[in-house]
Amino acid sequence: MIPRAVKTDSPGFGHRHSERRRRRSTAALAGVVLTLLILPLGVLALFSVTRAYFYPQLAPDDWNLRAWRLLLHPGSEVWGAMATTVFVGLAVVAVALVLAVPAGRALGRHSFRAKRLVEFLLLAPLLAPPLVVAMGLDFAFLRLQLTNRLWGVVLVHLVPTVPYAVLVMSGVFANYDQASEDQARTLGAGRLDAFRYVTLPAIAPGLVVAGVLVLIVSWSQYILTLLIGGGQVVTLPILLFATSSGGDTALTSALALITIAPVLALLLLTSRHVSRMPAAQIGLP
Amino acid sequence: MFAASRSGLDQVAEPSRVWIRLLPALMVVVPVFVVAVALALAQSLGLLPLVGDSRLSLDAYRNLFSGGELWRSLAFTSYLSLGSTALALGLGVVIALAFRHLFSGSRFGAFMLQLNLPVPHLVGALAMVLLLGQSGLLARVAGSVGLIDGPAAFPALIFDPGGLAIIAEYVWKEVPFFALIALAALGSVADDFEGVAATLGAGRWRRFRHVTLPLLAPVLLPAAVVVFAFTFGTFEVPLLLGGSFPEAMPVLAYRKFTNIDLAARPEALAIGIVMLAIITLAALIYLRLGRRFAGRQ
Q1: Which residues, in sequence order, are bridge partners of residue A63?
Q2: Per-residue pLDDT tens for A226-246?
Q3: Has residue A271 been placed in a domain?
């Protein structure tokens, strides 16, 4: 019996030709898949620049920028919501990274007793529905009168974000070469200097990825912010939901795009780092 | 000293250092999470009511499980979650297998797959209304080519008991998630292993079954658990795209939670606890499966 591989690997004009055709059809299929993936964003873009765009119109008659003008007007609510979202996001990123760097180092480089338990405790919040966490904590905010809603939102955003940061950083430290840091210490560098000049530059790309992921997760939160923010903390998703119940399709679509624009731009800027990370660690459901 | 540093000072570091590094994260995440779950459990058991006396009882659970509402909601949510997880997993793997040579070299491909990563489900759901609604873009395309004669003739994909738009939104969002994970797992080794298997005479199916699948399963199974848990607990998507009958569990819980009748609150939290129990069960099944899988290897 002739092994199949011999048959398929035999070089020849016919083979090369079919190989090229196969490659071309794969590329076409990839094009279709990628189009489907960005189609919903395209739909939002289309609806955002129209007025009175109803069934059965396929192409809109009336193109206009009313929704964009309204939303990007200097007096619009969008700016306040954007500032709140950025503030919450950056605070969450800062705290999450400060917590995740040492924890990731411990989990990535050491084996110790109760390691599985610690991993479970740090990763379990990843699986808990934000609604359930929010409903549980709502009591604390109502009855114990934890009044500062903004910091409350920052605190609860840590629940779904810190697990991701720890996951990324433990992956980074698992592949981290300890030798240079040890050499710096041997040469007399203090703990802080060794961290500042040796460790930090080495883990910087990982920090960028963890930070981007944490920001994206915080940026996307709706129900946690709604219940814990008690209506006082208006982030972009909160404003978007309120706008969508107003029924103005163009306005909602434009605001949806404004909501994702900053994080999309950030991903674009950091994609060099993000695509280099093992994808198993960069997934966000 | 030098010998110790070569083997990695950290590896032999005293246990106290390890715990000092873990403590900050544990001290923030665990209390907030544990307090949230404990408060949810306590309130579901009739403790800590907003008004009235605190009384330990299983009334909320008894009411829920004796009525049909919870069971219908549970069945509907499980169907949405299992259906979209399976569909997204299958499509993600197919895409990764079909395109791995195309994408493995190109950052552009990987970037395109990451493009909807920062898109919140809320935004995805709003886009699905415009795309899949009865007067949405898809219906207009169907109308313009003469497939339907009016919006009413277009199948109800949103607000319908079949929850098809909900599944579409989840699949749209999760397919790249699975595809990226599968692509990373296949990496560059899959080709070598498969080549060896082919030279040894293994056919397409046997190569997939004995080479590719064992590479994928260990990373895709936990990813599937994460997606199951996520789709099971997401609130915005079934709220925007689902009908009022049957209601997804998070929507039902939220409706009871915000009911003017504060007596409904324990039931809302009991639904939350049931959701946590089901997700925990899924994670436990995965851990069992994982152990058996590891045992076979």
Answers
A1: A50
A2: 999 988 899 999 999 999 999
A3: yes
Q: How many A-B residue pairs are in contact by the CB < 8 A criterion?
A: 316
Q: Give the per-residue pLDDT at B5.
A: 36
The pair phi, psi for residue B56, each rounded to 5°, is -70, 120
Q: Is residue A29 part of a domain?
A: no
Report the residue from A30, A130, A158 with minimal CB separation from B32: A158
Report pLDDT for A84: 97
Give the start-to-end residue ranges of the domains of chain B. 60-296
Question: What's the first-to-final CA gap in chain A, in angstroms?
Answer: 47
Nearest to A37 among B21, B24, B176 (CB): B176
Q: In angstroms, rounded to a whole number, what is the distance separating the alpha carbons of residues B184 and B180?
A: 6
* Shortest alpha-carbon distance between residue B293 and chain A (Å): 19
Give the model's pLDDT for residue A71: 94
> A237, A220 in Cβ contact below 8 A?
yes
Give the ipTM of the model, two decimals please. 0.88
- C-alpha to C-alpha distance for B54 and A209, rounded to whole angstroms: 46
Q: Is B50 on the interface with A (CB under 8 A)?
A: yes
pLDDT exceeds 90 at position A183: no
Alpha-carbon distances, residue B61 vs B45, B258, B272 (angstroms)? 8, 18, 11
Which CATH number does the domain housing residue A225 bear? Answer: 1.10.3720.10
- Cβ pair B195:A5 closer than 8 A: yes
Peptide bond into A160 cis (omega under 30): no
- Tokens linked to A1: 């019996």
Q: What average pLDDT does this structure show over B191-215?
A: 81
- Rounded Cα gap, residues B132 and B292, in angstroms: 42
Domain hosting A146: range is: 87-277
pLDDT of residue B149: 86
Give me the architecture of the B60-296 domain, per CATH.
Orthogonal Bundle (1.10)
* pLDDT tens digits, B45-66: 988 777 777 788 888 899 899 9
SS3 label, residue B73: helix
> pTM for the full model?
0.89
Q: Within an 8 Å CB–CB cutoff, is residue B43 touching chain A? A: yes
